[in-house]
Automatic annotation (TrEMBL):
It comes from the Bacteria. Belongs to the YciI family. This is YCII-related domain protein. It comes from Luteitalea pratensis. Residues 4-111 form the YCII-related domain. Pfam families: YCII (PF03795).
Amino acid sequence: MAKYLLLLRDTGTYPDMSPEAMQAVLQRYIDWTTGLATRGVLVDASKLYDGAGRIVRGGRPQPVVTDGPYVEGKEVIGGYYVVQAASYEDTVALSSDCPHLDFGSIEIRELEAMGGEQS
């Protein structure tokens, strides 16, 4: 089985929700993630901290490090999943009921092992 990266993209803005509604959304993410783990396809997952980050550019003779990333009015990556699946089609099927689709999009990329072999 190959490994696929699911990048959770959103605009960084969310509809106003009551605390109860936010808790319900969080529970949907927990349930979806638990389902992936139960099926044995979940490799890793994490939400990214809001705002904080660094961009490293160049490298010779010294890399340039800036605060970021900052995206104005565009999509931002809010988190990721790494799953195992037989194909892109299977990964799309796994992603089709992800609660994130109510707030943004999911970019799917197959991971390639650093030795050049498929993951």
